[in-house]
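# nightly structure sweep
# worker-07 picked up a monomer target from the shared queue
# config: single-sequence mode, recycle default, output format = structure tokens
# input follows
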Amino acid sequence: MITARAAATFDPVGRSVATARAFVRDTLQGWGYADVVDDAVVLTSELVTNAVIHAGTAADVLCLRTDDGVRVEVADRYPEREIPIQSTGPRLANHDSENGRGLLLCAALATRWGVEYSPTRKQVWFQLDLRERPVGTRSAGPVLPVDLLPTTDGRVRVAVVQIDRGAAITSWNEDAEQLFGYGAEQVVGKPLGDLAAWPHTPGIGTGIAEALLLSRWEGSYGIRDTNGRVVPVYASHLRVRDTNGEPSTVCLLVRDHERAVLQTPQRTPVSDGGGENRSRDPFEVFIGSPAPDDLDGLLQRTVERARDMLDGDSAFLLLATDDETELEVRATTGLPSARQRFARVPVEAGTGRYGSARMPAVHDDLAAVPGAVPLLNGTGMRSVVTVPLKVEGRLTGSLGVAAEAPGRYSNEEALRLQFAADRIALAVESARLGELERLRRGSLSFLVEASDLLAGTLDRDQTLALMAQMTVPTLATWCAVYTIADQSSEPYLSYVLHEDEDRIDGLKALLSRIDPPDPVPTPGARVWPAPADAAHQAALRVSKRELGLTSTPLSSGIGSTLATASAVGGETVVLPLVARNRVIGMLTLGKPSDDHFRQEILELAEDLSRRAALALDNARLYSERMAISQSLQRSLLPPGLPQIPGVEVEVIYRAAGEGNEVGGDFYDLFPIRDGAYGFAIGDVCGTGPEAAAVTGLARHALRLLAREGFGGPAVLERLNAAILDEGARSRFLTLLYGEMWPQEDGSAILKVVCAGHPLPLRLRQDGTVSPAAEPQPLLGVMDDLELYEQTITLDPGDVLLCVTDGVTERREGTRMLGDDGLIDVLTTCTGLTAGAVAARVLRAVERFAAEPASDDMAILAMRLQEPLNGV
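# output follows
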């Protein structure tokens, strides 16, 4: 039965694919279907790409929520384009063909899928079913003497919080108010996720949404109180159904150090039939709980029960890598787990031959065989028993229990532990493979979106910011990007990001005080201990100062230094940014604790670093070429406008095209000799760099020829010859050229030649407008030109307006501004300054049409000033 639906339509443009992915992701996460989000996003991406890119039509996406899963339908409006389907499923015309790849993904990932045709549309749909979640088990603890009961510091408060099926809080008791500071009226109706500080490792573990859907769940997390602090809590979630049949979740929460109040006992006494109690094998209680897809919980409970079963001081569980050459620490108890988590040790290592991980082994005294179990080095453990986890004869992991006293274990304990390990090996391996598959699918979706984001910008600073924001907090707690300008330059710290913004400045200051990592081109991540060492040294100086052992002043406050040390004190890795066979920088990832980065995260970071390096290098090349282009373009513009006595001058210039500062239109105003000034405004056929090249030729030739004493017709005739000499690169040119002689009485004499250009307009003080020249042939077309100049006199207060055809040919549909429209605008400018006249003309052009101008445009306004008080 369909319980909810969401639909959207996406235009046939490339960016719609990313938008469709975001729509499906947000929709499914809002429904609480996190288990199938990554698969749905990948399939939607393929099907929408087929619609908007290959079919070239809009794509209609419909998400349907059902009781047991989700159905997504993607339709396009091109039914004539057949889908390559045969009886055995989708086919490819050849291995290099793109046809049918989206359907191959549907066949591989979806529970069900299909194709439907109608006269106007073609629809591909897929169904993803949710995995069933097993019901948790119950257990009871033994009767304990009073002195063995756990202790508390004062009254134990148990917060009772009830959550509805939408994850919103419906009930909040008095103890919850005392623990976290919120009154019921402040939190009822809000999602629990708004208050929960949930520990999360990308791609694994159980999130808050999943925990609320389980029939029962136990574990630790945090709740933010009214002061913004995180209160560590231990919680027990129980899913129930009310009298109306609606599901809800009851959450019992206590402070984390009081977890014994809620925590399921580790050992369960049972009767052996003779009236005596014996300890049940913890694995009897454990099998089937927790849910198989929660690998972290599965492994942690495994080591806790293994330790209890053999009455040990610590226990550990390692999982084998895919090639079985290394073992990765995944869960420990009684050991410094934060320092060991995700660490890797070779299967064949140490003098004790860790190859014994393939067989049960007992070490009576590790002091006699140093290095036999590298994980226990420096922990104080003396005796240990280890057994392999095997599935179908293949090593999948190792389980061990250790004690501080020597000689604690014998072959009998090894057999008991091996028996338990055999019972859980298949469940652990199944959960591990499920986790790995989810992580890989999540990685695919992550890299697809990262590639889209990085490809969407050519700005260097924005690329650096995207690199950091994609890694924090998804892959690491903090990130720093170093860049290298060239092979002779040192790495430079370019960008720093921490998931806690308050720690960015301190982190940046600490990294600035240490030498950057070496720019090694070797692929893959390598550990960089310098930040952690520097952080530890800073924390040590603070401690000595507080104890009065040193008087050395610190560069920052004690609180800031300790916060920075805690933020950087964990493992730090460096990945090279290599593009076009050159190291252009380093991507640095760090953790606050001593957790190691898991290998899958490092592989994902390596894939991201390759994409980011290419995007960063493309941004660098684009910036360099833009700088060169802008420098060359600026050289084509006049360096500045001269001050002409008694004449106001205003120029407005707009070049068409993004990133262009100079196009086919140009202007110039320059002194020729004492008392004489030349001015020009022209338009080269076309736009862009080719037109700009002729612009440069024209502007420089005009200045040179005018200053050699040639008159207007001679200047233009010689320029015409120079343009024709360009051969295939020549372009015809319209040009208005004139020379001005300001007079002592405030007037000015002008000699003008208008070669195919829009005529200059003269605005008199009485408001009349008239052309100030006659049209003549344009340049760059004929060899023999016979041009002549016209002489006019401008009176004080008169305005001479010169424009290019980007003004007069401004269009809105079939309407055009034209010469008459420009005259109408100019008649309203009586008494205005030259700047105001140019601004009014520009405003009229912009308002004439809603669309941006597609042609270059230049406006040159000159106004003769009126004498003050008759002077």
